Amino acid sequence: MRKIIVAIFLVLTFLCSPAMSITAANWFNYALELWDGEKYTDPGKAIEYLNNALQLEPDSALAYNSRGIAYRNLHQYQMAIKDFNVAIRLKPDYAVFYNNRGLSYVSLRQYQLAIKDYNEAIRLNPDYAVAYYNKACLLALQKDAIQSCNSLRLAMERGFNDSKHIQEDKDFDNVRNTACFIDILNKYGK
Questions:
Q1: CB 35 within 8 A of CB 70
Q2: Taking the model in full, what pTM does it have?
Q3: 72 Cβ partners below 8 Å, 6+ apart?
Q4: Using only C-alpha atoms, what is the Rg of the chain?
């Protein structure tokens, strides 16, 4: 009996040793394994992993941003915004964080805050095609065809060249038949 207790103690000691500890980077990578390129396949599990990462590394702006995306995938937009706010506080010069918060503001129909975030993302990274694209979508939703087309043109000039996605994106329904939208697709769409 004593040998069994000693063996269990040795196994537990080995398992709890620093060499076997899971780091914040490990937890972050576990969450990233759930990313399919557009969303988390299991956002709840991603949040769990990112919570663990943040317990070990509470100043990780990337972990807050990633958790914000997972909350957005769950349509928990206020929680997402809280995490994007922390990410921005920790790394105020990172354009992606503003763009991601802008997407959450759009979901809450807080359009002026979304535009402000897209503009800040563009100010920080003038070549950030996705921010121009998201701004174009929002302006189209607001039926501002000229400004939407201008932002879409800038997005496409900076490399956003998924014309099939643009043609199918319902956000552009309000401007789809305008001359400027058709001209942009004819000029840049391939």
A1: no
A2: 0.86
A3: 80, 100, 103, 104, 107
A4: 22
Mean per-residue pLDDT for 81-108?
A: 99
Q: pLDDT of 114-123, one tens digit each?
A: 999 999 999 9
What is the spatial distance between Cα 52 and Cα 45, in angstroms, rounded to a whole number? 11
For residue 27, the Cα-to-chain-centroid distance in whole angstroms is 18
The CB-side HSE value for 31 (13 A sphere, CA atoms) comes to 26
- Please name each of the domains of the chain with its CATH number: 26-113 (1.25.40.10), 127-190 (no CATH)
Read off the pLDDT of residues 74-84 as tens digits, 9 standing for 90 and up.
Answer: 999 999 999 99
Predicted pLDDT at 190: 63
- Alpha carbon dihedral 130, 135, 138, 139, in 10-degree steps, equals -140
10 Å CB burial of residue 37 (0-12, 13-18, 19+) is exposed
Mean model confidence pLDDT for the chain: 90
What distance, in Å, lies between the first and last C-alpha atoms of the chain? 74
Give which of 110, 114, 117 is closest to 96, Cα–Cα.
Answer: 117
